[in-house]
Automatic annotation (TrEMBL):
Alphabetical GO biological process terms: carbohydrate metabolic process; cell wall organization
MF terms (GO), sorted A to Z: polygalacturonase activity
SUPFAM superfamilies, per database record: Pectin lyase-like
InterPro entries: Glyco_hydro_28, Pectin_lyas_fold, Pectin_lyase_fold/virulence
Official protein name in the record: Uncharacterized protein
First and last residue of the signal peptide: 1-22
Organism in which the protein naturally occurs: Neoarthrinium moseri
Annotated localization: Secreted
Family the entry assigns: Belongs to the glycosyl hydrolase 28 family.
Length: 416
């Protein structure tokens, strides 16, 4: 288990933005009910014992996974918890029976995505003590889908559903089946000291292995994450508001993402009041990027869509250290469309604005600091600001100071 312990070198944080309430880490206290989950230890399904413990101790309970390996061969739906502490000392291994999971994963109600575990409730506190681990047996999935995006019924590892005034700390996630986790319909949640490693061991890419996605959630703090994966490190999607992401390291994948969003025709969605700070990106494609669907619907979600409405605004991305970023530091694009289709980048009515990128240092492979393709139908992007940028080109060590722009209105601190 020591391999997955959090690195003590992560910097501690001092300040929060005023719009986000800081949930503090929680120490277990005396509970009316305590449930210690026994592991079979022989590879047979431990999910029935897990479900029984969560049912018995769902109110004012203390649920304990011992320092053992638990085999999870069937879905878990443990929501509607109240005032529950969950101690995860052990190792949860999902079966590699992909045929079973394709038939039995549970839909989450967005993008036709599904999950193997719904977990949520009020005043819920999950502690992995730096050793508790979720292993999705993801290589079996990477080998089946062979890079196909949003393979039907391929499940994510965990869906935090309806968590309120809750915390998740000291947890490790390895070889996630698809997205590592989604935080949905949740409010005032701390996710701290989280380790994610979903990387392929052969030529089949670990695509769609986002470290975390948020949607329909408010007041979420994500602190001291270390993510090494094949896609977005953290992605904020529909109706994500008052989010802080800080003091983290993102490796290999796409970097930090706002979106994709605007996929559902006529639906109004937002991403608002976001602070991202003190992040190190190592070998990611971008440091940060924005992606919206075009204004023309082509096919249907999860792989198709478009025509959504709404806005992204009041975002601050600051104090980033870039190491070997594979493309530009910042990309804004409104061109996402059905796989294989060429989207009209000027058709989206979804507005992107009020985003500040400040204090970026390091090296990138691209020749631009930022590449921005904004939609003219939405009036272009507005309030885009860059400041204190000190980047060099990886191959030549020459200064990078150019920007590529389309429909950026009133750029602040830079010239297109």
């Amino acid at each position: 288990m020591a391999l997955f312990r959090m690195l003590a070198s992560f910097a501690s944080v001092v300040f929060f933005v005023s719009t986000v309430q800081a949930t503090t880490a929680h120490a277990p206290r005396g509970k009316a009910n305590t449930c210690v989950i026994e592991a079979n230890g022989n590879g047979s399904d431990d999910a029935p014992a897990i479900r029984a413990a969560f049912s018995k101790c769902k109110r004012d309970g203390h649920i304990i996974f011992e320092d053992k390996k638990y085999y999870v061969n069937s879905p878990l739906n443990t929501t509607d918890l109240s005032n529950v502490d969950i101690d995860l000392h052990g190792y949860l291994l999902w079966s590699n029976d992909t045929s079973y999971w394709l038939k039995n994963s549970m839909p989450i109600g967005y993008q036709n995505q599904s999950t193997v575990w719904f977990l949520g409730g009020h005043n819920l506190h999950v502690n992995g003590f730096g050793m508790g681990t979720f292993d999705g047996n993801g290589q079996a999935w990477y080998d089946i889908v062979k890079g196909v995006s949003n393979y039907p019924d391929r499940p994510m590892g965990l869906t935090i559903q309806g968590a309120v005034d809750s915390s998740f700390v000291g947890l490790n996630f390895v070889q996630s089946q698809m997205w590592t986790m989604t935080i949905m319909h949740s409010d005032n949640v701390l996710m701290e000291d989280i380790y994610v490693n979903s990387t392929s061991h052969n030529g089949n890419p670990a695509r769609n292995t986002d470290g975390a996605d948020t949607m329909f959630s408010n007041n979420i703090v994500m602190r001291r994450w270390r993510v090494d994966n094949g896609d977005d490190a953290i992605s904020l999607k529909a109706n994500s508001t008052n989010i802080v992401v800080e003091d983290s390291i993102f490796m290999t994948g796409q970097g930090f993402a706002l979106g994709s969003i605007g996929q559902y025709v006529g639906k109004f969605e937002t991403i608002e009041n976001v602070t991202v700070r003190n992040i190190t990106t190592i070998g990611t494609k971008y440091a940060a990027y924005v992606k919206t669907w075009t204004g023309n619907q082509v096919d249907y979600p999860p792989n198709g869509g478009g025509g959504g409405l709404g806005f992204i605004r009041n975002v601050s991305i600051q104090d980033l250290k870039l190491k070997g970023v594979r493309d530009v530091a910042v990309n804004i694009g409104q061109c996402t469309s059905f796989s294989g289709a060429k989207g009209d980048c000027n058709s989206s009515l979804f507005h992107v604005g009020d985003i500040k990128f400040t204090n970026f240092t390091g090296d990138i492979a691209g020749k631009y600091i930022g590449s921005m393709q904004c939609s003219s139908a939405a009036g272009g992007c507005s309030g885009i600001e860059f400041g204190d940028i000190d980047l060099i080109k990886t191959a030549t060590s020459t200064v990078v100071d150019d920007y590529k722009c389309s429909n950026v209105q009133g750029p602040i601190g830079f010239e297109c």
